[in-house]
Design a protein that fits this description.
Keywords: Membrane, Transmembrane, Transmembrane helix. This is FUSC family protein. It comes from Winogradskyella alexanderae. By secondary structure, this protein is an all-alpha fold. The protein has a domain at about 1-75. Helix content is about 75%, strand content about 0%. The protein has four helices and no strands. Helix 1 packs antiparallel against helix 2 (about 30-50) and helix 1 packs parallel to helix 3. About 20% of the residues are buried. The model has no long low-confidence stretch (mean pLDDT about 85).
Length: about 110
């Protein structure tokens, strides 16, 4: 039982760390929570058995790192919005070009 939680904790902690450094850092929250809960379960099991596995420390370190990176990215990464006037002007030009192209097309009405 304890080994299952250790393996699950490591896998989710590593997945959370990988997701935290990618642009999908918002998705790292779910593996962070799962890894943290697995770490707590391992902690309670090891206290009952009076053992001190190092795996708990490694899981919590990975959780803290990935949580820190996720919080950092959510606070300091702001999506850059371009100049909306230029985008609107391009849209109008594309619309005018499309109208001109459609006017130039000859349609046979002899169908």
């Amino acid at each position: 039982m304890k080994r299952v939680f250790i393996v699950l904790g490591f896998i989710t902690a590593i997945l959370a760390t990988i997701l935290a450094v990618t642009p999908l850092s918002n998705l790292a929250i779910i593996p962070i929570i799962v890894a943290f809960l697995c770490g707590l379960v391992i902690l309670f099991i090891s206290r009952k058995q009076n053992t001190k596995p190092k795996s708990i420390q490694y899981i919590f370190i990975l959780v803290i790192i990935s949580l820190g990176l996720t919080i950092y990215k959510s606070v300091f990464n702001k999506p850059e919005i371009g100049d909306t006037e230029q985008l609107e002007q391009r849209a109008e030009e594309n619309l005018e070009d499309s109208k001109e192209i459609l006017e130039e097309i000859e349609i046979d009405e002899d169908f």
